[in-house]
Please model this.
Amino acid sequence: MKVITRKKAKILRLNKYFTGKPCKWGHIVERYTRDGNCLKCSYNRSIKWQVENSDKKRYHNNNYMRKNKEKYSKYNAVWRKENIEKRRETGEKWRRNNPDVVKEGKKKSYIKNKFTPLYTLRRVCRRVIISLSNNKSYSSKLYKLNYTPEEYISYLLDPLPQFKDIKSAYTENYHLDHIVPVSFVIKYIENKQLAFKISMDLENLRLIPKLENIRKHAKVGLPIVQETIVLLNTRYNVSMPLL
Ligand SMILES: [Zn+2]
Model:
């Protein structure tokens, strides 16, 4: 960083300057031209204020929001729609920085939901893919399906010749994607065994990079999903709706 005096920074109308010397707390960082305070100290002070006054701040914010509820709910809805990418990034960043909270939340939601059909179905699907990537011990669940482990493996890896097995695809952050989501299948198919078979139908599966998988949440409605719903409806003689 270029060393510059506060005086010179003022003349140049820079809002920050850098002396190269430590502040009284030993931070060697830029300072604000307006008050000569170091960035780190200013930041710490502002955090300290927010913590000490969090009640006050929360009250103020909530009160303001309540009074302007209509305006904000409209504004927020528009903002949310226009900033899907940004929200996702913020969420990802937060989860990265708060792994313990994430873990705790997962645990709670697991305990709460572990016997719901959706969770059960997701669990058995996961077990199958784990057993497929672990060539030696095929899950007993696999034998309830219409395909052999070898069929699954060769179908899934066919479009990805760079991987010699499913495990190496997983190592490269590829994940098993259900084209028609498990949550959708379980909504319309009451018979659990059938829902499992449909979810694990070869043509409902593909390996895709994890990032893409996360982005698919809004995907129901895409042509490939529609096509797959039609195919599965015919194959299993069911009638999941087209969205
Ligand atoms: Zn400082």
